[in-house]
Amino acid sequence: MRSKMKAGDLVIIAAVLLLAAVIAAVLAVPQRGGRLYAEVWQQETLVERVELTAGTDRVIDLEGHNVIVLEGRTARIARADCKDQVCVRTGTLTRAGQVAVCLPNRVVLKLVGDDSGIDAVAV
Ligand SMILES: [Zn+2]
Prior knowledge:
The chain has 123 residues and is of the alpha+beta class. It has helices at residues 2-28, 86-89, 116-122, and strands at residues 36-42, 45-52, 57-62, 66-71, 74-80, 99-102, 107-113. Helices cover 31% and strands 37% of the residues. A hairpin with a 4-residue loop joins strand 6 and strand 7 (107-113). The model is unreliable at 117-123 (pLDDT under 50). The protein binds zinc ion. Zinc ion (ZN) binds at residues 80, 82, 84-87, 102, 104-105.
């Protein structure tokens, strides 16, 4: 009986170690995506440029016209006082190149990646 219990314990320990390895691998993947920045443009002027990391937690309030929420490596226009609400309905941006535009308020939220990977290849 005792030896069976130990065998069972080893299986549990092995399973926990395997699970930990899988979690570590999953967490490591986003790091390879490079840096990601959220840019907030208002009236053709860059008003904010924030690097998005896993720990990003920030709200940018453009004088009540547009409220932009930066959460982890995502960005979205959470609230707006425009009539069409197109910017809010655009939803959450998660990848470089994605853009949310508020035409009535002339506000643009976009995600920009850095091209360090391409630079490394060129050098
Ligand atoms: Zn809007």
